Amino acid sequence: MTKNIPTEKQQRAQELHDILNRANYQYYVLDSPELPDAEFDRCMRELQQLEAEFPALITPDSPTQRVGAAPLAAFDQITHEMPMLSLDNAFSDEELEDFDRRIRERLNSPASVEYACEPKLDGIAISLLYRDGLLQRAATRGDGSVGENITQNVRTIHSVPLKLLASDVPAVLEVRGEIYMPKAGFAALNEKARAAGEKLFVNPRNAAAGSLRQLDSRITAQRPLELCAYSVGLVEGDLPERHSDILEQLNRWGFRINSEMAVVDDIKGCIDYFRQLGDKRAQLPYDIDGIVFKVNSIPLQKRLGFVARAPRWATAYKFPAQEEMTRLLDVEFQVGRTGAVTPVARLEPVFVGGVTVSNATLHNRDEIERLGVKIGDTVIIRRAGDVIPQVVSVVEIKRPADARDIEFPTHCPVCDSPVEATPGEAVARCSGGLICSAQRKQAIKHFAARRAMDIDGLGDKLVEQLVDEGLLKSVSGLYHLSLPPLIALERMGEKSAQNLLDALEHSKHTTLPKFLYALGIREVGEATARNLARHFGDLEHLMEADTEALQQVDDVGPVVAHYVAEFFEQPHNLEELAALQQAGVHWESEKQDTSAQPLAGQTWVLTGKLETLSRNEAKDYLQRLGAKVAGSVSANTHTVVAGPGAGSKLNKARDLALPILDEEGLMAMLREQGIEI
């Protein structure tokens, strides 16, 4: 009976029902979620607490009593032989320890429990049914009891075995796993969509869901989907009695399992594992939103059993949310080194991805139009690892009546020069060049950066101070700074000023690749600067090259050639180059002795995390020996260097039987070639 329950509690419960049911429908049925995962979790926990306090509020249609939502009728429906249940969540060490305490109390055992630990992939749960080793059926989770038959689509995914690799498989084997889209594949898919003027996917999970539910399996076949197996369902036959051993068995039968999987002795090991995976989360080649911990013993799992919607023997410890809702308060425009005018969202501060975020990038005018975002909107922002937060979508149902359009400036917000848009480019740029103090500041910061001229002590704030005080009007002006005006600056003592002057003097002896990179020519990064230097040997020959000659350089196409030639045609750039050389900036010739380049003609790929060298250092050493360092593995790749966390690139290298080195092997090779590390 609900008559004794306060009216406001009943109303709140119904409100939470409506919110969660709508979110389930958008997430599981339409594959177009509006509600961030963190907000969904908060609403679900609030409803669970209400129902715990007032059990009469529990109804058969409560979101706490079900998993997902009813499937669409576009696919045949499949009834799962064993329900595909959800997992309870933990959000703190204390909640994880409570989970362990409940396990040991129910088992009536004070001893520690062994747990299997697996990253919780952010994808789509799937059931694969095999009979006599052949794939018979693939189905989505659906509402946990009934899913959708997507067998034709799943058959197109290369990591799904159509026939198992051994004869000792059970007569009936249901494998459960996650179908997901790796980060690199997601980026390539969106880049292709952007080039075609099509709608972009919000995140890899959304892309995977949309790809799996295509009625035309030929479309699915073009999408970079992967399967990772994480458990079994219905089994007619014998399997090992430890969960981790079952996964190893599945791996032997042809299924990919997560290489980060581990077994720990107790709950402290679970917490340590959670910390370790959290530290490397941003470097993983796929998205994860938490860690799943399971009692490793299958007999103990059976003793522990289930509650209505989840097993008692497993839980998911969630990472801090990477997506959150907040309000767009205003939009400001920043000017970069190349004059690019970038809209920056000023947000109502919100905690996301472990930090409080109040600003996010909106990229450019096209992105604003694609999002359909207005000032005053409630938006979803995303922050993954160290990536700059970005607005990924708008919650249109929350749009206020006074929301207003974002107006892109026609004149630079810093110097008032006209803002121009080049046909074919999404980016609008200030036309002021170095008369624009914003561009001047960014150009000087880039010039002084560690991978450019490496001027120690010249930080961003000092650059801004020098420009604002009128002490620095150009890059070459750095080498004409003197002690008295530096000492006069706020928070600049004599020792700091002298250290800066010493660093400037030291930076005069550089290399041509670093100098070219420091100039900030559009589209000329470190690799292109190195290729230009090696090809032409000296600055004079490079300055004389036309676009046709420039395109003879490795990795230089028509666009880059145009920007390089244009840079050296500008009188003020030529004056600046002369001023820098007159100030004493110099370097040795880059003409290469090919006998000193034992890796010439070879393509190497770096993947995973390097622990002794940085990725840039390893790349630099390899390029010094003549190798080209690529971002993807192909049949033309000579060697792959794989560190911890290596994923799809390592798997592809193995498939192609390519040479693979770990970091220790790389360093041994470098030492053999005379490079001191």
UniProtKB/TrEMBL annotation:
<dbReference type="Pfam" id="PF14520">
    <property type="entry name" value="HHH_5"/>
</dbReference>
<keyword id="KW-0520">NAD</keyword>
<dbReference type="Pfam" id="PF12826">
    <property type="entry name" value="HHH_2"/>
</dbReference>
<comment type="similarity">
    <text>Belongs to the NAD-dependent DNA ligase family. LigA subfamily.</text>
</comment>
<dbReference type="InterPro" id="IPR001679">
    <property type="entry name" value="DNA_ligase"/>
</dbReference>
<keyword id="KW-0235">DNA replication</keyword>
<feature type="active site" description="N6-AMP-lysine intermediate">
    <location>
        <position position="120"/>
    </location>
</feature>
<feature type="binding site">
    <location>
        <position position="178"/>
    </location>
    <ligand>
        <name>NAD(+)</name>
    </ligand>
</feature>
<dbReference type="InterPro" id="IPR004149">
    <property type="entry name" value="Znf_DNAligase_C4"/>
</dbReference>
<feature type="domain" description="BRCT">
    <location>
        <begin position="594"/>
        <end position="677"/>
    </location>
</feature>
<dbReference type="Pfam" id="PF03120">
    <property type="entry name" value="OB_DNA_ligase"/>
</dbReference>
<dbReference type="InterPro" id="IPR018239">
    <property type="entry name" value="DNA_ligase_AS"/>
</dbReference>
<feature type="binding site">
    <location>
        <position position="141"/>
    </location>
    <ligand>
        <name>NAD(+)</name>
    </ligand>
</feature>
<keyword id="KW-0460">Magnesium</keyword>
<dbReference type="InterPro" id="IPR001357">
    <property type="entry name" value="BRCT_dom"/>
</dbReference>
<comment type="function">
    <text>DNA ligase that catalyzes the formation of phosphodiester linkages between 5'-phosphoryl and 3'-hydroxyl groups in double-stranded DNA using NAD as a coenzyme and as the energy source for the reaction. It is essential for DNA replication and repair of damaged DNA.</text>
</comment>
<feature type="binding site">
    <location>
        <position position="415"/>
    </location>
    <ligand>
        <name>Zn(2+)</name>
    </ligand>
</feature>
<keyword id="KW-0479">Metal-binding</keyword>
<feature type="binding site">
    <location>
        <position position="294"/>
    </location>
    <ligand>
        <name>NAD(+)</name>
    </ligand>
</feature>
<dbReference type="GO" id="GO:0003911">
    <property type="term" value="F:DNA ligase (NAD+) activity"/>
</dbReference>
<dbReference type="InterPro" id="IPR003583">
    <property type="entry name" value="Hlx-hairpin-Hlx_DNA-bd_motif"/>
</dbReference>
<feature type="binding site">
    <location>
        <position position="412"/>
    </location>
    <ligand>
        <name>Zn(2+)</name>
    </ligand>
</feature>
<dbReference type="InterPro" id="IPR013840">
    <property type="entry name" value="DNAligase_N"/>
</dbReference>
<keyword id="KW-0436">Ligase</keyword>
<feature type="binding site">
    <location>
        <begin position="86"/>
        <end position="87"/>
    </location>
    <ligand>
        <name>NAD(+)</name>
    </ligand>
</feature>
<dbReference type="InterPro" id="IPR036420">
    <property type="entry name" value="BRCT_dom_sf"/>
</dbReference>
<keyword id="KW-0227">DNA damage</keyword>
<keyword id="KW-0464">Manganese</keyword>
<keyword id="KW-0862">Zinc</keyword>
<feature type="binding site">
    <location>
        <position position="436"/>
    </location>
    <ligand>
        <name>Zn(2+)</name>
    </ligand>
</feature>
<dbReference type="InterPro" id="IPR013839">
    <property type="entry name" value="DNAligase_adenylation"/>
</dbReference>
<dbReference type="Pfam" id="PF03119">
    <property type="entry name" value="DNA_ligase_ZBD"/>
</dbReference>
<dbReference type="Pfam" id="PF01653">
    <property type="entry name" value="DNA_ligase_aden"/>
</dbReference>
<dbReference type="Pfam" id="PF00533">
    <property type="entry name" value="BRCT"/>
</dbReference>
<feature type="binding site">
    <location>
        <position position="318"/>
    </location>
    <ligand>
        <name>NAD(+)</name>
    </ligand>
</feature>
<keyword id="KW-0234">DNA repair</keyword>
<dbReference type="InterPro" id="IPR004150">
    <property type="entry name" value="NAD_DNA_ligase_OB"/>
</dbReference>
<dbReference type="InterPro" id="IPR041663">
    <property type="entry name" value="DisA/LigA_HHH"/>
</dbReference>
<dbReference type="InterPro" id="IPR033136">
    <property type="entry name" value="DNA_ligase_CS"/>
</dbReference>
<dbReference type="InterPro" id="IPR010994">
    <property type="entry name" value="RuvA_2-like"/>
</dbReference>
<feature type="binding site">
    <location>
        <position position="118"/>
    </location>
    <ligand>
        <name>NAD(+)</name>
    </ligand>
</feature>
<feature type="binding site">
    <location>
        <begin position="37"/>
        <end position="41"/>
    </location>
    <ligand>
        <name>NAD(+)</name>
    </ligand>
</feature>
